[in-house]
């Protein structure tokens, strides 16, 4: 009975931990910066993952992670990247971090960025957990990797769909241009033939 209760508790813990992973999509205009602040409780870790929705040469951003609980200390900075992952640990004290997403390199077009925040157990504190809780933490890590892979596949699918739609749109415009040119050339030929026959009949 006690074992079943612990198993049920573990399942609930997995569901709660998986629910703590939030996916947010933001649209950054040219030269725009999006920032937010997140608190990390002692004994836990914050996993930050971001990915540009359409991976093209110009669609790169900067991501800056700063610890504002210890006097604006720079933790990590991603420069000109499509995606990235960074983990912030909180040992014994609560930490507050500021994360900035910067569309620095575009002067005209915007870019869409999807990012996720996942609160998990600090690896250093897992050793002190119950063996069942340790297994739960491992399951959560595996689920997080699967979720990350799913996000990447979804992004690739979105990019492919956008490419196909763009190609279809260009084919449509080219077809309209061909039809317009065909009508114009046919009209000119009919007009020229009419003028030619009129002059011939006049002579």
Q: What does this entry look like structurally?
A:
It is a single chain. The protein is 46% helix and 33% strand. The chain is of the alpha+beta class and 203 residues long. The protein has two domains: 21-127, GOLD domain (Jelly Rolls), CATH 2.60.120.680; 128-202. Mean pLDDT is 79; it is low at 16-20.
Descriptive keywords:
203 residues, alpha+beta, Jelly Rolls, four-stranded antiparallel β-sheet, 3 helices, 8 strands, elongated
Sum this structure up briefly:
46% of the residues lie in helices and 33% in strands.
Portion in beta strands: 25-35%
Structural class: alpha+beta
The side-by-side strand order for the widest beta sheet comes to: 1-8-3-6
Count of helix runs: 3
What general form does the structure show? Answer: elongated
Low-confidence stretches: 16-20
| Biggest β-sheet description | 4 strands, antiparallel
How many domains make up the 3D coordinates? 2
SSE arrangement:
Blueprint: H1 2-19, E1 22-28, E2 33-40, E3 44-52, E4 61-67, E5 73-81, E6 83-89, E7 95-102, E8 111-121, H2 123-126, H3 131-202
Antiparallel strand pairs: 1-8, 2-7, 3-6, 3-8, 4-5, 4-7
Main location: membrane
Protein name: Emp24/gp25L/p24 family/GOLD, putative
Subcellular location: Membrane
